[in-house]
Amino acid sequence: MSKILTIVGQRGGIGKSVTAVNLATSFALLEKNTLLIDCDPQRSTTHWCGIKNADYACNIASVLSAKVKFIDAVVKTELRYLTIMPAGFGLFQVAGKLAKLSENETLLRLFLKDVEKEYDYVIIDSPSSYGFLNTMAMTAADWLLVCMSIPQSAAVDFFDLLRCIKYIRTFHHIPLKIAGLLFNRCETKEEIQSFLDYQKLPDAKELVFNTFIPSDDKIRKSTDLKIPAALHDIKGLAASAYLNLAKEIHFFFN
Ligand SMILES: Nc1ncnc2c1ncn2[C@@H]1O[C@H](COP(=O)(O)OP(=O)(O)O)[C@@H](O)[C@H]1O
Ligand SMILES: [Mg+2]
C-alpha cells in the first residue's frame, strides 16, 4: 500500500521544498516508485526537479479545476522511479475559489485514491502558511513529516500544527499522524535535545527522526542548478542524510 507523506513546517525557508525534492529523489534512488506533488504556487519543488514551463502545461491547478485528469498531468523525470505532479502559478487562484467550501479540502485525497496504488511513496510539498492549500495537502496524507530548524522553529508552531491535525482528524475523519520531526541545518543531536528542552517540548523528543540534515552548500548549488542534491553530488553531506532519512522512513513503515 502506498504511503502518503506531506511535508509541513510553518516557517518559510525552513527546508520543506528541499526536503520534498531530496526525500522523493532518495526513495526513487532506492527503487521505490515515487510521486512528488507540488502544492505550493511558489513552485520551488517543480523548479528544483528541473521541470521547465514547457514540460507542464498541465499541472495540479488544472487537475483541481477539473480541466485535465490527474494521470494526464504528471510528468516523468530523468529518474526512472520518480514522477512529479508540478504546480503552476495559477494554483493560488484555483485555491481561492476552492477555499469557499471546506469539503474541497479533501479533493487531492480523492484524486490520489485513483492513482496511489501505482506508487510506493507519495510525497507532497506544502506552502508555509495555514490556508486552503496547506490544509488540502495535509488532508491528502495519512502521515506528516514536520520540518524544523534551530532557531527558526518555535513551540507555538508545533502547538498550531497539533490544532490543525485535530481539525483534520475530527472534521474530515482522517487518521492523520506525525511520522516524525526532521531537523534541518542542524549539526548534532545534542543541539536538537537542548532546543526542545529550551522550547519546553520534551514530549516531542520521541518524535524526532534519528536522521537530521546538516547545513550543506551543495543544497544551494543543486537548487541553483535545478537538480536534486543527489544528482549534483551523491556523496554530499545533505544528499547522504536524505538517503539515510528515506531508509529510516522505509524501515518505520515496514
Ligand atoms: N540543509 C541545508 N543546507 C543549505 N541550504 C539549505 C538547506 N536547507 C535549505 N536550504 C536553502 O534554504 C532555502 C529555503 O529552503 P526551502 O526548502 O525553499 O524552504 P521552504 O520550502 O520551507 O520555504 C533554499 O534556497 C535552500 O537552498
Ligand atoms: Mg517551499
Descriptors:
alpha/beta; seven-stranded mixed β-sheet; 12 helices; globular; binds adenosine-5'-diphosphate; binds magnesium ion
What does this structure look like?
The model has no long low-confidence stretch (mean pLDDT 95). It is built from twelve helices and seven strands. The longest helix is centred in the middle third of the chain and has 17 residues. It has one domain: Rossmann fold. With 254 residues, it is α/β, with parallel strands linked by helices. Strand 6, helix 8 and strand 7 form a beta-alpha-beta unit. The chain has a seven-stranded mixed beta sheet with strand order 3-4-2-5-1-6-7, with helices on both faces. Helix 1 packs across helix 12. Bound molecules: adenosine-5'-diphosphate and magnesium ion. Magnesium ion (MG) binds next to helix 1.
Structure summarized in a few sentences:
With about 250 residues, the protein is of the alpha/beta class.
**CATH topology (fold) name:** Rossmann fold
Query: What is the end-to-end distance?
Result: 11 Å
Morphology: globular
Q: Tell me the strand percentage band.
A: 5-15%
How many beta-strand segments? Answer: 7
Q: Based on helices, strands and strand pairing, what is the structural class? A: alpha/beta
CATH superfamily: P-loop containing nucleotide triphosphate hydrolases
Helix-strand string: EHEHHHEEHHEHEHEHHHH
Strand order of the largest sheet: 3-4-2-5-1-6-7
What's the CATH C level? Alpha Beta
CATH structural architecture? 3-Layer(aba) Sandwich
Determine the mean pLDDT.
Answer: 95
How many helices does DSSP assign?
12
Helix content: 40-55%
Major β-sheet annotation: 7 strands, mixed
Bound molecules: adenosine-5'-diphosphate, magnesium ion
Q: What's the number of structural domains?
A: 1
Quaternary status of these chains?
single chain
